[in-house]
Amino acid sequence: MSKSDGTTKITARLVSTLRDKFDKRCRECFIKRDQFLDHVIALETPRLSRDLGDTKLSKKARRFISNSLTCLGTHTVNWKVRKSTASALKEVQRRTNLCRDAFFNRLLLLLLARRGLIEKLGLMTEYFDEDPKGSGPMELIGWTVADPLEALHDAAQESNDLEVDKSLYRMDLSPLDFVLGARPKHITEATLTNYRAKIALACKLDDRDVPGTRAYADAMRAARDLSLDDDLNLVIRPKGEQQS
């Protein structure tokens, strides 16, 4: 990052465990955190824009995501990035009403992903089964730093898992619900809704999943009607059918 690029600070609310693990990993790998993140965000912003397409979060959905992220336990940090990096991301945020903090946390989660988490999310491909020992350490570091999430993007494209949806930024993070971040002290309908990685790290969220919206109410009504139909089918049998 040269001085001529011009830099600015961006503020992010990070799940505390993700922040701590990412900072520790940067120190262990002798990586300058802010410069590395500037590079990664600049790489991922066009992919984020492509994956989200013309979709736009409603105000209620964005607020719901932000509140859910807070429930997981967050810490505010500042990063120094190039103005061009911040501007490109801001344009995607303007167009899609993206909850930027959810994107940042998803990004760190993916950067920190190990084999067990990759398998859990349905992203395994032959790439992760290859033995990399034939390459020198610096060569491997160079390949990884050049495009850290390339292999995961390829894995998402190759995955037939409907929950992956061919995209890291549309991918359902439900397998990580109640595993990432703080956990509710008391189990209620509200906490089961709010303390979810699927919601807190969402870049795209349909209003059907957002309490308080008309779409959510319609979906709940349809689910109740379906449940009622199932109950009636157990009671009302075709004429002549004997009760067992």
Walkthrough of the structure:
The model has no long low-confidence stretch (mean pLDDT 85). It is globular and about 60 Å long. Strands 1-2 form a two-stranded antiparallel ribbon. It has one domain (3-208). Helices cover 53% and strands 7% of the residues. The longest helix is centred in the last third of the chain and has 22 residues, at 214-235. The protein is mainly α.
List keywords for this structure.
11 helices; single chain; globular; 2 strands; 244 residues; two-stranded antiparallel ribbon; mainly alpha; 7% strand
Number of separate helices = 11
| Distance between the ends | 75 Å
| Rounded average pLDDT | 85
Helix content estimate: 40-55%
Number of domains: 1
Class from secondary-structure proportions: mainly alpha
Number of strands: 2
Shape: globular
Strand content: 5-15%
Order of helices and strands: EHHHEHHHHHHHH
Main pleated-sheet profile: 2 strands, antiparallel
Roughly how many Å is the radius of gyration? 21 Å
Unreliable segments of 5+ consecutive residues: none
For the largest sheet, list the strands in their spatial order. 1-2
Oligomer: single chain
Compile the SSE list and pairings.
Layout: E1 7-15, H1 16-28, H2 33-52, H3 59-71, E2 74-82, H4 83-96, H5 100-111, H6 115-120, H7 137-146, H8 150-158, H9 189-194, H10 197-200, H11 214-235
Antiparallel strand pairs: 1-2
